[in-house]
Amino acid sequence: MTGTGFDLHLRDVRKTYLSGADEPVIAVDGVSLDLAAGRILALTGPSGSGKSTLLHLLGAIDAPDSGTIQVDGTELAGLNRKRLAGYRATVGFVFQSFHLLPALSARDNITAPVLPRRRKLAFDPAARAQQLLDAVGLGGRGGSLPSQLSGGQQQRVAIARALIMNPGLLLADEPTGSLDSAIGGEIVDLLLSVNAEYGTTLVIATHDRTIAERCGQVLRMRDGRAAGLSGGPAGRHSTPAGQPHDASCHAPS
Amino acid sequence: MPTYFADTATGADPASVRALGGKPLGPNGDMAGLLSVSPSLLTTISSLPELENPDSFQDTDPAHGVNAGAPISVIRVKLTGTVGLGAAAQARLRLVAQEIYQRTGLLVDITQGSSPAAVTVIDPAGKYGRPRLALSEMWSRMGAAELISSAIDLKTRLMTVLVLLLGTVFVASAVAASVRRRRPELAVLACTGWPRRWLFGLIATECALLGGAAGVGGAVLVAALAPVTGTRFGVGTYAALAVSAVLLTCVAGFYPAMMAAGAHPGAATAQLPGRGKRRRFAGGRASGPATGRASGPATGRARARSVTRLAAVNVLRVPGRSLLAAFGVALAVSGLTLLTALTLAFHGSTSGTVLGQAIIVQVHAADYVAAGACALLGLALAGDIYYTASSDRVGEHALLQATGWTPADLTRLAAAETAITSVTGALAGTGLPLLGIRAVTGALPAGATAVAAGIGAGGVLFTMCASLGPARRLLRTAPARHLAEG
What we know:
The complex is a heterodimer of chains A (253) and B (486).
Chain A: E1 8-18, E2 24-35, E3 40-44, H1 51-58, E4 66-71, E5 74-75, H2 81-89, E6 91-94, H3 106-111, H4 125-135, H5 151-163, E7 169-173, H6 181-198, E8 201-205, H7 209-215, E9 217-222, E10 225-230, E11 247-250
Parallel strand pairs in A: 3-8, 3-9, 6-7, 7-8
Antiparallel strand pairs in A: 1-2, 1-4, 2-11, 4-5, 9-10
Chain B: E1 9-11, H1 14-19, H2 48-52, H3 87-104, E2 115-123, E3 133-141, H4 144-152, H5 154-181, H6 183-191, H7 196-229, H8 235-261, H9 307-317, H10 319-346, H11 365-392, H12 394-402, H13 407-441, H14 448-475, H15 479-483
Antiparallel strand pairs in B: 1-3, 2-3
Helix pairs in contact in B: 5-8, 5-10, 5-11, 7-8, 9-13, 10-11, 10-13, 10-14, 11-14, 13-14
């Protein structure tokens, strides 16, 4: 693990989609946000409020129409496709529906992100995958296909996959949305433990108020806008003196 | 002109060869008396005036053993150039024979496509000590060329069947892909109480309508092209064409319709293929905390340790589809390889060695058109399968992109997958025709292997382009679009 998370700075970020009837849908509307490295932020709000889109923009799997996103000092808009891919490799993404490759074993799913660059890695992907499987409590299930795993186990594999490249930023989009509350709680424990142990900046989009409260700081989204930030900072790093909050959001311009 | 050479009767078994001292049997000793006599004179038609001049001949009286009433027993006429075996060639032969008869009154026996064929003749032991002999004689097999031509012309029919087969497989593949994509929709219908036969009927009806439209379109196209090609068809032919299209489409749609009939209502709430297709319907919820215990890990499964190995895993995970793609490439290159090798082996219409000698194999332009159609259909089939596979797995590709794979990495993956199946198909499609030609003629014609390699490489290249184009187009879409949750 890098041991250092990424800090995030968003300024007036907008994203619009065209609906089926070619009607523009404003998914993210002028969101500005600062989050210090190693912090945890929960994004809450009703369906369609822009939580997932904001995560996609942070993970560079979608591009904003306007505004700037700076992660760990890097302006995403200025990256070419190759460097963008390099950035994505430093970000872990956990999805609600896991998105495991069905033909690959749990172990191979974890190493899939590093296959093209496996010769340039400083670590052995297979050994690292086993280490991560052990860490998420699936040490003996490395050879199992996703279809042979329960939902909770699949999400654990997805989390392990997100950690294979020692990410500085971990994004989780409704990570417990497909799980029951008990298993969901374990998954949140796992995500929080990653932050606590390695200082990875963690952003979780969730409907679940309980999960949001455990994250400390909560950014409420409504109609694509940041409707308000609440809660105190949480995460591995303590709040620096004189700074009441490590996260802040600004009214849209 | 092989029949102008002196034929011989040689021993057909070791005992006869020993009895003959390793030499041919003298013609006078042939009991069957069927060996042809070599011509006494070979000339061209320009020397006819000389032949009609009695002063040109000496010692033609009976005292010298010549039948003065019929001094010439047989006149063999060989037409110049390559006669061929088509209808036009046969009409030309008939005209020449008729003209000879009308001018000379001679009986004309048309010998078209005769070929010496080895026949074993048993010569019984003679009264004066000659042993029983088994003789191998080259008898003239009449119509051998027509026989061969008929057999070879099977290739024309074969090409037609191949075109129909490929078209059917193409439609079947497309309908199956459509059914896979519409699985949730079909499952919703199943949820609302549609019985299996209705679901089957829905797809079958769609296929019939599609086939009807294609049949009418084809008939219109044929009607438009008929004046250009100088052909004329009746209304019945056009009706048969339309009906055939409907039947073929229905045959193609049978299996996909069966797939549709088996739609599970649970699929209505499951994800699209490629995004958890194999997930059990009840498996979306965890049944308890993960214990970390192994419960039957698949230890013998192929590991995806590299992009190429991952490509191999992806090819093997859909064996039917991969085989179909390879089949398409194989059919695409096999027709062209076969025709090219035939052309090289027989030089269009020269002698070969099938059933003796002097057989004529013609590769018609229509054969090349059919082979070209086969090639296009086969490559289109393979390309369509690759495109469908890319579309089905667009979510997986988006996931890999989200984890840091570059477009070049994903292109490499798609290229490796395509290469595995297309090279397999190209090897089969070029190798089998060459083996067939070699089995018939005893040797591969010069250049055939190189030409086949070129055709195979062209097929692979075309398929790679056909598959990588759609793959790269899909890559231009933001990964988020394919990873969006509901």
